[in-house]
Design a protein that fits this description.
By secondary structure, this protein is of the alpha+beta class. 22% of the residues lie in helices and 35% in strands. The protein is built from two helices and six strands; from the N terminus they run ββββαβαβ. The longest helix has 14 residues. The radius of gyration is 17 Å and the shape is elongated.
Length: 105
């Protein structure tokens, strides 16, 4: 049944606009003026199929994140830094550890 509720996940959001009809939306970097760039698509199917479509749409947008900046309030692991570098995202961190451990595993 269609609702006005919007469901959000870490990847994006979805809204059922009619029974079996979903509008999905993901963030795709930033425009030249600094505003968030969003991409949306209409998909048909179940809620699970809409979730899968969100993941696919988010994956398609990874290339548009190249050149973006990501700042973390704590020091992140080397593996995370390598991942962001592979995606072309510039990373900065505050000189503070998340916990009392001084080293990441």
């Amino acid at each position: 049944m269609a609702t006005n509720d919007t469901s959000r996940s870490k990847l994006g959001s979805k809204r059922e606009v009619a029974p079996g009809k979903w509008v999905i939306r993901v963030q795709a970097g930033f425009r030249a003026d600094g505003h968030v760039r969003r991409v949306s698509r209409t998909v048909y199917g179940t809620e699970t199929e809409a979730d899968i479509a969100i993941a696919q749409l988010a994956q398609e947008q990874l290339g548009s994140l190249r050149g973006c900046d990501a700042h973390f309030s704590v020091i992140i692991s080397e593996e995370d830094i390598k991942l962001y570098k592979r995606l072309g995202i510039h990373v900065t961190c505050e000189p503070r550890y998340e916990g009392k451990k001084l080293y990441h595993k």
